[in-house]
Design goal:
40% of the residues lie in helices and 16% in strands. The chain is built from 28 helices and 22 strands. Bound molecules: adenosine-5'-triphosphate. Pfam families: UvrD_C_2.
Length: 700
């Protein structure tokens, strides 16, 4: 694969040039300049639109103007993001029969579609079907592509290109230098998109259909987050209308993480995707002021709790014992007990939401009354039925047989009333488990209760038993391995009529309820038929570093294979023992200073308990520190990261303080080692591990 740079363009592979014609790089630059002015023209066209004549009213005009403003924003030409990053030379016209001998076609691939004044494409959106071979074509399967060209940019200038002639048997396959350079480029600021370098196995996940749920298992830095975000962008392109109606959501583990990834989709032109943590979803209606012991949270997060709640809510249904007597004017209408029983039984058998049945019951009783009225020769209409449904007699019957249930109060009663819990957890929870979740001092009311996050998930489940939760079109769940079965259910009901992308790594599960197998997780999510894919190539962590971290795998996830890093960075790893524990802070500061001498972002990761001491030491040494997820700038590049917040984040250089303390910060050894595995796998270019206490045995 010959690479060409501005100064050293020696072996040209372009078709023979006419004497005096410009060299390929100049031609490509000319196409870039022409594309940029075409984009400018597209933007000016939208800006010049006068909507006064086409909008019927004020609301219409506001809506249309907002859409146009979005479009104008989307058409902005950002000088630091190349308008195109690749070119495909097809051997034949796309879609034409090869036998016709139709001439080849050329497409420039970029972040968005750009066309000229005649509507002919200058740049094709990376998500369009004709762009797909840019990511997937290979020597084995050239997909009718004769040449794939990648472009290299320096400070927004097109400075290099690299060609692959996929159908040329004489050309040997090589790893792309531009691809490697893009992967090695220092990270400053928030996460960026990978449109120019999506790999074939990643692309298969990105472009998999909207209908199915995909689950991706992948070690640290294999691009799960990147793939999930690009899949959303792809789905929005391929199913724009449907997803605009139903909505999309990206779920991440915490605010810092969401902040870190929030720029990726807008950079791809997608501004409408919502982001949330699972906690955000379930605390919309509950104020969380309490916490749980791990043992209680594990039981509360167990899927058996869903059945306990289902039984508890249905226990409010009582078979009718009294007939209903409705008085209208001078007449009395009676619905006998057996008929009421039939209605209640039928509603129970239909298994509709508790609240829906509660609303249907008065209408059903009123309908019986109306039938009797008709039999007696009256001609009542809908208004009469509604009036009957609202009579005190009918209301009293509904209250007796199918009373309204408040979800929070239902959970409150389960957690405070040992008999109520025992009755509905019979055969599901052991006595010990019931004791574990019962409040020792029950609160007076749902309002005054100190709900925990696990309680909020239970209330969310109870709310769904009362009234169906609104479902979105597509949900991406990142770091999914940390969700409890009940949390999976909470997410699952938010995409019950849509699909999901589930991303995670079983080896990075650090919650007491973390996922043991994707099959189980997908079952709880309600997507048991999802496809499980595996990503094994690592794009973040250098080979030496991942090899060191992978020593932990036999202890934390015995079935998983180590990540195969695509990054060679010799000398990227150092483990330093500090003999005197009192000298550890100073050694850490020195390692930070050493790392700051390089370009890029620095993360100092330490056990949560060590953070205050390190923050003070850094401040005393005059370092300005960022918090995780906060944007790195050229002036402040050092982030102090508590180990509990490191998940999903990355830094060019990582300094890891005292691994043993990171392990000891967790309730058990396996969780501690998993936390350490996360901390060890955040580095893009270099890792320095400092310790005075002995290293954990699994690592030593
Ligand atoms: N095809 C690619 N080309 C260039 N960079 C890539 C590619 N795939 C992933 N990366 C980069 O590798 C890094 C790790 O990606 P990402 O955060 O998505 O991995 P992850 O699997 O979610 O990691 P973790 O398990 O640690 O959360 C990111 O900087 C991402 O941009």
């Amino acid at each position: 694969m010959p690479a060409h740079e501005a100064e050293s363009d020696t072996t040209t592979t372009e078709p023979p040039d006419l004497p005096g014609s410009p060299d390929p790089l100049t031609r490509e630059r000319a196409h870039l300049a022409a594309s940029r002015s075409a984009l400018r023209a597209m933007r000016e066209d939208v800006q010049a639109l006068d909507i006064r004549d086409v909008t019927a009213n004020w609301v219409n005009s506001v809506v249309l103007q907002a859409q146009m403003d979005d479009r104008i924003k989307a058409l902005a030409d950002l000088s630091h993001t190349p308008l195109f990053f690749g070119r495909l030379d097809y051997l034949h016209r796309v879609g034409a029969d090869e036998a016709e001998g139709a001439e080849g076609e050329q497409f420039y691939i970029g972040r968005r579609h750009v066309h000229d004044a005649h509507g002919d494409p200058m740049v094709i959106d990376w998500r369009a079907p004709v762009s797909q071979p840019f990511y997937r074509a290979s020597r084995k399967d050239p997909q009718d592509v004769g040449r794939r060209r990648r472009f290299g940019y320096t400070s927004g200038e097109l400075t290099a290109y690299e060609d692959e002639h996929l159908t040329d048997p004489a050309e040997a396959a090589q790893t792309s230098k531009l691809l490697q350079a893009e992967i090695e480029r220092p990270r400053v600021g928030p996460m960026r998109d990978i449109v120019a370098t999506i790999q074939p196995e990643q692309d298969e996940i990105v472009r998999s259909g909207l209908g199915g749920t995909v689950c991706v298992q992948g070690g640290p830095g294999t691009g799960k987050t990147a793939v999930g975000l690009h899949r959303v962008a792809y789905l929005l392109y391929a199913h724009r209308d449907r997803l605009a109606r139903t909505g999309t959501l990206v779920i991440g583990p915490n605010r810092s993480f969401l902040h870190y990834i929030e720029q990726v989709l807008p950079a791809l032109g997608e501004l409408e995707v919502k982001q949330a943590t699972v906690d955000d979803l379930v605390t919309a209606h509950v104020e969380v002021r309490g916490t749980d012991e791990a043992a209680a949270a594990v039981v509360k997060g167990d899927a058996r709790m869903a059945e306990v709640l289902r039984r508890a809510i249905r226990s409010h249904v009582t078979p009718p014992t009294e007939p209903v007597m409705v008085v209208r004017g001078s007449r009395r209408w009676r619905v006998p007990v057996y008929e009421l029983e039939e209605i209640v039984d039928e509603l129970l058998a239909r298994d509709i939401r508790y609240g829906a049945a509660h609303e249907a019951l008065p209408q059903r009783i009123a309908h019986c009354v109306l039938t009797r009225m008709e039999e007696a020769g009256e001609a009542p209409d809908d208004r009469v039925q509604n009036a009957v449904a609202r009579t005190p007699a009918v209301k009293a019957a509904v209250k007796a047989s199918w009373p309204a249930v408040d979800p929070a109060r239902l959970v409150l009663r389960l957690l405070s009333d040992p008999e109520f819990l025992a009755a509905h957890a019979d055969g599901l929870l052991t006595e010990d488990e019931r004791k574990t979740i019962l409040w020792s001092r029950p609160p007076r009311s749902a309002k005054s209760a100190k709900w925990s996050l696990a309680d909020a998930v239970l209330i969310d489940e109870a709310r769904d038993l009362v009234a169906r939760t609104h479902s979105l079109g597509h949900v991406v769940i990142d770091e999914a391995q940390d969700l409890s079965p009940m949390q999976y259910r909470a997410v699952g009901r938010r995409c019950s009529t849509g699909s999901a992308t589930v991303l995670g790594d079983l080896a990075q599960g650090t919650t007491p309820w973390s996922t043991e197998s994707w099959e189980q997780a997908l079952f709880h999510l309600g997507k048991a038929d999802a496809l499980v894919e595996e990503l094994t190539a690592g794009f973040r962590v250098p080979r030496e570093v991942i090899a060191y971290a992978s020593r932990l795998l036999p202890s934390i996830a015995p079935g998983l294979a180590p990540v195969e890093s695509v990054r060679e960075s010799p000398g990227s790893m150092a483990v330093r023992e500090v003999a005197d524990p009192a000298g550890l802070d100073a050694a850490v500061l020195a390692a930070c200073a050493e790392s700051l001498a390089h370009e890029g972002s620095i993360g100092l990761i330490a056990a949560d308990a060590r953070i205050p001491a390190l923050a003070a030491a850094l401040e005393a040494a005059g370092h300005v520190c960022l918090s995780p997820g906060e944007e790195t700038t050229a002036e402040s590049r050092l982030t102090l990261v508590p180990a509990s917040l490191a998940k999903g984040l990355e830094y060019d250089y990582v300094v890891l303080d005292d691994p043993a303390a990171v392990v000891d910060g967790e309730p058990d050894e396996r969780t501690g080692l998993r936390r350490l595995y996360v901390a060890l796998t955040r580095a893009v270019s270099g890792l320095i591990v400092l310790h005075s206490a002995p290293l954990p045995e699994a690592l030593a």
